[in-house]
Design a protein that fits this description.
The complex is a heterodimer of chains A (646) and B (341). Chain A is α+β, with helices and mostly antiparallel strands. Helices cover 29% and strands 29% of the residues of chain A. In chain A, strands 22-26-27-31-30-29-28 form a seven-stranded mixed beta sheet. In chain A, strands 6, 8, 9, 16, 17 and 18 form a six-stranded mixed beta sheet that branches. Chain A is elongated, with a radius of gyration of 40 Å. With 341 residues, chain B is an alpha+beta fold. Chain B is elongated, with a radius of gyration of 37 Å. The chains are: A alpha+beta (646), B alpha+beta (341).
């Protein structure tokens, strides 16, 4: 949480010559982080474990420990408590309290208050920290909360039925209207206060009830300071979405000792600002007062964790300045934890943190660890992915990253993971195919007239009953303003560079134009597809792991032939609708001296091929080539009705 | 022969100076230097001369030939452009189509490389993960206020009785316990780079982004070692003029915890839309909490460790020379953007 602290208010508790910039810098380096200083107001980020710093009082205490480590004098000027008489029974209020819900409950009756505007100095202080002044009674509560970090509430004493309070958990469905006029139906388990006439008058720790609120006719008030079980407060505040400052403090676990300071400041301010007079007895139900927790830490442990040697006195001095009791017993440090740190400091490493941060992380040396280097990951996928990206880049591909969270699309089936709390309908599902994302990416560039090729490597998420989904790393690409042959060429080149063994087989599939889709197959399994989509883009998608399994890192070596190949071109004509890919397969399988064949030209129904004939053991003679050629032509004539053109 | 050479040379030079077109010059060249040109003829006659003469005249002939060749060339250049053979060398060449790897890929490769150099092992863990690995095992019990820091996406799916709800990993830290369980016995030096998801969107946040998580677990690992590792990275990745700082922070899964900042490269420390007072938050770091080690099956009495998790996009944008004011541009597919890198 971020809090605002004005410089003038801070200096009421902190006596130092440090200027604002020094205070901000030193705090940031050794304690809570000061995000900015603007118009004499510090904006400070207080982490969830340091709720003791969420106030003027807390920051002053922390700064007084930190500034001296930079050689700057600083003293924390604690407020003196009024001489108060705490009693666990008083005549003006009878209470029944569950101590698990409320570890400490204090209240005091203040009579004859005069409602009016607050004095200017107080209004100014509240305004500085972003709180709107309302009237003296409301302002006192806000003032105390910002000053010491303890929420305080004021009831109109006259509105508490029979001067009785029962603090209990709410049952599901109970209703309460809070001060801000909002009506809530409680989820159950919420801490509430019921008065003697059976009405709920307080949503404890979050906001008071409207029915017991102070108004212009209020004469006597009940000043109310407590600590609550943080879990109950958080549950209620989260489920009602009623995130008040009080709730944000209580849910982090407040120091029950702070309550006495809260009530003392309250009585003081009420007397000063409203003329109200407090009863001489303060109701204080505090069955288990704070018992100091103790931790023992070895010097060696501190030094090993931080990585440098320490002087024992140095450690004692730092911890004492932070409010700890610290005593060495030979090389073991016995530590007493102050109440305001008891939730945060529980185990030896917590002490390590206090020592290290006060010493200053920025003062520590830096040194990379020595020691054994771990074994590499077996079957690591990363090099293969990088290789694919680089190959596609070499072909002019442009890599993109698109969001895994997608909107509903007809390509996806119902077997898809849905987000419970999406940011919007456009990002409600976890994609099972990259196609819609890539089509969208292509469309974003619809103004482009030149050919372009976008590709992405990303997971798709295949649901797996109630187990974690199968995250399948996939490669997909979209080729625009191009031709089938050019696009297919990219896939073929990629597969060939990867030394992939498998085939492109024409098979129909959803979303592709009829006859314009190829399955990318290994022996039996389809590992990907390529084709022309219904919208005219060329698209491919492959599973990376499958591709890796059916590829080779390095090509295999075959002996370079000693004797040259005979090369000749052959032009043939075929009947309509002959598949040239199949023709070329037939040529290769029908003649063993034919080591390669390539398509070099097509004109009308004339198809020209270049043929390589080779015998590894000798140079072929013309009659031998002729006999091979005749063999090929015979097969093509019989199978496809091919006619040779001369 | 000597006079003959000199007079031929002078004769040719004067003709070259008078020539008006490239064609005329070519004629002169053929006339003197062509296969049966006058000067070429003299070369042929050399063989019938005496040794001494041969040597001297040979030198003279070569000199005359060189002079004529350069004279013709320089005369050609001095002719009006229209009279020259026209060629324009300023026309741009025919380039192969240039492909582009995305900035994030470049960033990830560079980050991975930097850590692999000091013995880290790159891994990847699930993006859709159980609550236990993302939170509870990292010392963040259900309903802990610290969870507010992560605006987490949840999956509509039945919760696992042991591991809780299915979530989209809001940080790469969920890989910490997975890595400890994989390796079992330290040493561990992990670099986990993966997609992460949080419910937020503005100029410096996208709901999907990338993080890289380092985890080191071994005997006697200290804060000094963490600093050494982060400094090594900063020096190698950002260069000299960028500075980093460590601030105390709090994470449930590390103790002590730190926030690592680097000075903003866009405003050079003055403060701008993208940074806070001139500093950019790289991400958190800390010493692995004993409870987390225990949850990963590692004995906290024997081993200690550190971890850090930073945003890839943020980290890369803070690198020298790059000023992309809106992080969302990285996830757009605009060719005009993509082709810049």
């Amino acid at each position: 949480m971020n809090i605002l602290i004005s410089d003038d208010w801070l200096r009421e508790y902190l006596k130092t010559d440090a200027n604002q910039k020094q205070i901000a810098e030193c705090l940031s380096l050794c304690g809570p982080s000061v995000e900015k200083v603007e118009n004499n107001v510090y904006s400070i980020e207080v982490t969830t474990n340091r709720v003791d710093c969420a106030s003027v009082f807390g920051i002053a205490r922390e700064a007084a420990a930190i500034l001296p480590t930079f050689g700057i004098k600083a003293i924390f000027t604690d407020k003196k408590l009024l001489p108060l008489k705490f009693k666990n029974k008083v005549d003006y209020l009878s209470v029944k309290i569950d101590r698990d819900l409320c570890p400490r409950f204090t209240a005091v009756l203040i009579k004859n208050v005069q409602l009016s505007d607050s004095p200017d100095w107080l209004k100014q202080r509240l305004t500085d920290v972003g709180v709107r002044p309302i009237n003296n009674i409301v302002d006192i509560s806000n003032y105390i909360m910002h000053e010491i970090g303890q929420p305080v509430h004021t009831f109109d004493y006259g509105k508490i039925g029979k001067s009785k309070m029962l603090l209990r958990t709410a049952s599901k469905g109970e209703k309460i209207t809070t001060l801000d006029g909002k009506s809530h139906i409680l989820p159950g388990g919420d801490i509430v206060i019921e008065d003697g006439s059976g009405r709920l008058i307080d949503l404890a720790g979050i906001m008071g009830g409207a029915n017991s609120a102070v108004d212009s006719r209020t004469k006597d008030v009940l000043l109310f300071v407590q600590t609550y079980n943080p879990k109950n407060i958080r549950n209620t505040s989260m489920s009602l979405a009623q995130r008040t400052e009080a709730a944000e403090l209580f849910e982090k676990g407040l120091d029950s000792e702070l309550v006495s300071i809260g009530i003392s400041r309250g009585i003081e301010l009420f007397s000063k600002l409203t003329g109200g007079k407090a009863d001489k007895y303060i109701l204080d139900v505090y069955p288990l007062p704070y018992k100091q927790s103790r931790i023992t830490v070895a010097l060696e442990f501190i030094e090993k964790q931080i990585g440098i040697k320490f002087n024992k006195d140095e450690i004692t001095k730092m911890l004492t300045s932070l409010g700890f009791e610290a005593k060495w017993n030979s090389n073991n440090l016995e530590i007493g934890v102050p109440s305001f740190r008891s939730e945060d400091i529980k185990i030896p490493v917590d002490i390590v943190e206090e020592v290290a941060r006060l010493y200053g992380y920025f003062r520590l040396p830096s040194q990379i660890m020595t020691g054994t280097i771990p074994e590499p990951l077996i079957n690591s996928p990363f090099d293969f992915e990088t290789k694919i990206k680089n190959i596609l880049k070499g072909y002019g591909g442009i890599e993109i990253y698109t969001l895994s969270l997608v909107e509903r699309n007809s390509i996806y089936t119902n077997n898809i993971l849905k987000i419970k709390n999406p940011l919007g309908q456009d990002s409600e599902y976890l994609r099972t195919s990259l196609a819609p994302s890539l089509v969208k990416a292509a469309q974003e560039n619809s103004g482009e007239k030149e050919p372009f090729h976008l590709f992405e490597l990303a997971n798709v998420y295949i649901p797996n009953n109630n187990h974690l989904p199968w995250e399948n790393m996939s490669l997909a690409g979209i080729i625009v303003n191009s031709t089938f042959l050019t696009a297919r060429g990219i896939i073929e080149a990629l597969l060939s560079e990867l030394h992939f063994w498998g085939k492109l087989i024409p098979e129909e599939g959803a979303n592709y134009l009829p006859g314009k889709r190829l399955s990318i197959k290994t022996a039996s399994k389809q590992i990907g597809e390529f084709g022309e989509l219904e919208n005219g883009y060329y698209y491919y998608e492959l599973s990376i792991e499958d591709l890796r399994k059916s590829s080779k890192e390095i090509g295999s070596y075959t002996v370079i032939p000693k004797y040259p190949a005979q090369i000749e071109d052959l032009t043939l004509s075929f009947p309509d609708k002959t598949k040239i890919g199949e023709v070329m397969e037939t040529m290769k399988s029908s003649e063993k001296l034919l080591i390669d064949v390539q398509l070099i030209d097509t004109y009308k129904d004339f198809i020209s091929f270049r043929l390589w004939y080779q015998n590894p053991h000798k140079t072929l003679t013309n009659p031998e080539v002729e006999s091979s050629r005749n063999n090929i032509l015979k097969h093509l004539r019989e199978k496809y009705g091919a006619i040779q053109q001369t | 022969m000597r006079e003959e050479i000199l007079s031929l040379k002078n004769q040719a030079i004067s003709q070259i100076h008078l020539a008006k077109t490239a064609e005329e010059l070519e004629e002169i060249r053929i006339n003197y230097l062509g296969r049966s040109g006058k000067l070429t003829q003299l070369f042929k006659n050399l063989s019938s001369e005496q040794i001494d003469e041969k040597k001297l005249n040979g030198l003279l002939l070569n000199e005359a030939k060189a002079t004529l060749t350069t004279s013709i060339a320089s005369r050609k250049n001095s002719l009006k452009e229209s009279a020259r053979d026209w060629f324009d060398p300023t026309i741009p060449g025919i380039k192969p189509t240039i492909g582009h790897l995305h900035l994030i890929t470049q960033a990830i490769d560079e980050i991975a490389k930097t850590f692999i150099q000091i013995g880290f092992v790159r891994v990847r863990y699930p993006e859709v993960e159980w609550d236990w690995f993302a939170f509870e095992g990292l010392n963040m019990p259900k309903d802990h206020p610290a969870r507010d820091e992560w605006e987490t996406f949840f999956i509509t799916s039945a919760p696992d009785p042991k591991f809780g709800q299915m979530v989209l990993t809001p940080h790469t830290s969920s890989g910490q316990i997975r890595e400890m369980k994989r390796v079992k016995i330290p040493p561990i030096r992990m670099i986990n780079i993966a997609k992460c998801y949080r419910r937020q969107i503005d100029t410096s946040h996208v709901p999907m982004f990338h993080q890289f998580e380092g985890l080191v677990v071994d005997k006697d690992i200290s804060i000094v070692n963490l600093k050494g590792t982060l400094d090594y990275f900063a020096r190698n990745f950002f260069g000299k003029e960028r500075i980093t700082r460590l601030r105390p922070f709090h994470f449930q899964f590390t103790e002590p915890s730190f926030e690592v900042d680097v000075s903003c490269g866009i405003c050079r420390g003055r403060g701008c839309k993208l940074c806070k007072e001139g500093w950019l938050e790289l991400g958190g770091a800390g010493m692995v909490h004993p409870t987390v080690l225990k949850n990963g099956g590692v004995d906290p009495d024997k081993y200690s460790g550190f971890a850090f998790g930073w945003g890839v996009e943020r980290t890369f944008m803070m690198k020298a020379g790059l000023s992309i004011p809106d992080i969302r541009l990285l996830y757009s597919s605009d060719l005009r953007f993509l082709k810049q890198f």
